[in-house]
Amino acid sequence: MSLSYHRALVAVVVWSTVLSLSEGPFCLADELGAPLAGTRPLEMQGDIASQLVEGVDRFLLKQIDDSVEARAAKWQRDLSSREKYEQSVESNRQRLARFIGAVDERTSYNAPEIIVEAGDSITIARNDRFQVTAIRWPAFGDVHGEGLLLTPTKGKAVADIVAIPDADVTPEQLAGLEAGVPAESLYARRLAESGCRVVVPMLINRHHEGLPGQPRSHKLTNRELLYRSTFEMGRHLIGYEVQKVLAAVDWFARDAGKEDANIGVIGWGEGGLVALHAAALDPRIDAACVSGYFDSRQKVWDETLDRNVFHRLAEFGDAELASLIAPRTLVVEACRGVEFEVPPGTGGGPGKLTTPDLASVEREVVRARQLSEILSSPPTLKLVTSKNGFGPHGTPDVLTEFLAHWNLKLLEDPFSVPPSNAAPGANSRHAARHRRQMHEIDRHTQQLLNGSAEVRKKFFAQLDTSSLEKYAETIEPYREYFRDEVVGSFDLPLLPANPRSRQIFDEPEFTGYEVVLDVWPDVFAYGILLVPKGIQAGERRPVVVCQHGLEGRPRDVADPSVQNPAYHQYAVQLAKRGFVTFAPQNLYIFQDRFRTLQRKANTLGKTLFSVIVPQHQQIVDWLAGLPMVDPEQIAFYGLSYGGKSAMRIPPLVKGYCLSICSADFNEWVWKNMSTTTPYSYVWTGEYEIFEFDLGQTFNYAEMAALIAPRPFMVERGHFDGVAPDEEVAYEYAKVRHLYAAKLGIGDRTEIEFFVGPHTINGKGTFAFLHQHLKWPEPN
What we know:
Number of strands: 23
Oligomer: single chain
């Protein structure tokens, strides 16, 4: 995989100490190992890059720990009455819908459609208490819910229930038409036996079929496969499946009438997740039962990737979701949960699902009661545990508590007559149904991709390009949105930089130093500084920050003894041309170790760049304070994942005057979302690459708009596998149009195509640096 497939984190060094000047040329350290003047000796040993990743990991884990108490600031609960409480949490409910991607308008319909597959009859099974039909119902767009409808054969249904199975349990299994679920856990059937009308939707499973005709080089679960592209468009598989459940609730409410509706949701495993979120979003649901799922979620980053929800822990633990259900009934069952693992090395995001720890469940239930205890007297949140430890789910005790909300009783003699299979083709029915559901979700998301350019255009409608002054004023709200909602920002002051350094190179043309700076507790920045020799007292030089790509290190670009074919020592070359250069160590190194950082950050509504941007701000402040540096002429130049950095860091770091994106510039949303091109990240191992809701807000042209009116350049090799030329040129044409046609500064942007692969070319870009940093080219 080429280096350009990766997203950047810039580990940089910051220093604001003013260095003393000597008479004559600028005075550097005298020997290898000595610190740069004005800094303390750098004494760190071992792999500093590894220590950097470890420190950021500790920082993020502490932020996650602190998130439980910090959530209170996001809520203004009014417990004086039910009506006022509902009003006070409505904004939280709306944000939850946004975070899980339950944002598409649901389709109105009169009744579900009965599906009759070849070899089936209308009624696929029945006994003396209920009958079963296969149904589907419109949910949103062209997406349907599909599953089974269990209808009582005698009398009117006493309640309408959506019984949601786990992702790897079929509706047929939960209804007792197929083997696979213990008899005591057939909660869909038990509820139907007790007189309820029950819809049993199917969920996308965790198997590996993928999409027909598409690459399968990585063993992605079906759930992760669909998660990847939906996440980029501000949607989520969780939200899609919640919408399918709520579309069934729409039918229940319309069919029964507002006053007579008795509506509940119940689920185990993934079904418990969907039931919890559906009930939290929709007050029409009178009662919910969540089995084998409810927990603190503080380690959601270690669960399967399809459970990665941006902002999740910043506002919502399971207790907070439960508080959105209060004072309606919520029954939590502590029982055996789903046991499933995606191991490292499969191409998917490593993660595992395990049975929630009982003590953790009990603590989260207590916390949920505390959040809304005034409303719930007597408490309507009930915890049911197995008498013999973690037993099977859906026990009679749980169903009894669940039905008690409507003063209903569980049938005491279940399964008196097993339902007969009028149509034995359940396996083929489920396989065909699952293929349709995969196709519909993928098609909906790809339609969103096709229309995303117009959505972004409307998003940027308030940008005024009539003058540079108006542009500078109206671009700022977009910069703030990019910082806070896309990249994510920690509201923390930077520590004093406390620079430490040691000399590592003494070359004829330059001197080199390793530098380490403090950023936040547990977070530091590290890189290599190259200072040309012969700088005179009072002379100030421009700086180029040279950023490596995926799995790279500063020495790949700044060590005169390292010959990396992707970088061609470009920091060294630029130092020989008279520029001061700095090569930061970025976080995207050590594979799953750094990718897990992204998942931890996402739970807080943050990304890797939430750490790297402050590191770069420190760097720029430090570089600007050096006596041999021109503080107005500090540029950024990155390759591959460093090119990703070039699109995300200069828009947010004050002090960068120019940006060059090499071997990465792209129709970025297409590259992340498309399931029809082999260039797409949907099929690769870069599971951290996806950025929530980017498709509706900032493609690369929009990120370049945050760089404007500063100079911006793209370096592109014709044979770079990151994308075909036409996709790169298409996206850059928008940048060119902004700079030249709208702002009248076409001389500040360029693209260089060269015959070559994924590499630094160092010709047009070097000339661009000399021109805009006002430093003469060598003879």
